[in-house]
Recover the amino acids of this structure.
């Protein structure tokens, strides 16, 4: 899952990015409304965290521009202002949720998890797909009840596939949603990477769809 953080307070920006990266997300950052608007319009984020009070262009204008451009990713608003009218303005501009500053980072992480799973149509923070069980709160993956140790990139891949189980995911989509903007992206390495993850899981759940990409599908339950 790839996220965008738009926050002009440098320390706070760094803290949020560090917390999100620690939770296993790929994160891009912007420090003003113009840069944030550009990234949100051009890069395919799974969710964005957007401060309302930003230099150059305020958060409400950025959000309106994203929505006008057809960007539908969930957006969590950060607001220092505890006035109800600011929240109404943010929701009318297309916000999905908000946090009032100062906040606990755990609350931001929990709200981001909720936005991501709701956007993907999941009701709970535990995703189940055949023998795979992923607790998105702890980042713990089990296969038939046995924990599997994953690298951060392997975690990002399986989490993305599990959030979107049943849908064909192209190599380009994987590259776009697993890596930060500055990362040296090469979709050819994805095949090797998927191969390694399959071996680690030890169960045949990631299927290749020739020419299109991959699909994570729970095997049909055996009759009898
Ligand atoms: Ca601000």
């Amino acid at each position: 899952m790839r996220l965008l953080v738009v926050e002009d307070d440098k320390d706070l920006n760094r803290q949020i990015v560090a917390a999100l990266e620690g939770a296993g997300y790929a994160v891009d950052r912007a420090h003003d409304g113009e840069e944030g608007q550009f990234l949100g319009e051009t890069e395919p984020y799974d969710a964005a965290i957007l401060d309302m009070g930003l230099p150059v262009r305020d958060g409400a204008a950025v959000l309106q521009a994203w929505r006008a451009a057809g960007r539908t990713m969930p957006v969590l608003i950060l607001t220092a202002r505890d006035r109800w009218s600011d929240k109404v303005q943010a929701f009318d501009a297309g916000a999905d949720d908000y946090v009032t500053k100062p906040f606990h980072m755990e609350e931001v992480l929990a709200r981001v998890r909720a936005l991501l799973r709701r956007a993907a149509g999941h009701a709970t923070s535990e995703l189940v797909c055949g023998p795979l069980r992923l607790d998105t709160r702890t980042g713990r993956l089990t296969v038939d009840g046995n924990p599997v140790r994953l690298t951060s990139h392997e975690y990002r891949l399986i989490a993305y596939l599990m959030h979107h189980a049943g849908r064909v995911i192209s190599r380009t989509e994987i590259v776009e949603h697993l890596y930060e903007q500055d990362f040296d992206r090469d979709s050819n390495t994805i095949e090797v990477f998927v191969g390694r993850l399959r071996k680690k899981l030890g169960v045949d759940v990631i299927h290749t769809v020739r020419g299109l990409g991959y699909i994570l599908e729970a095997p049909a339950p055996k009759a009898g």
User: Anything to note?
Assistant: Residues 37 and 62 are 5 Å apart (CA to CA). Residues 8-9, 51, 53-54 surround calcium ion (CB under 6 Å). The domain at 2-119 is CATH 3.40.50.2300 (Rossmann fold).
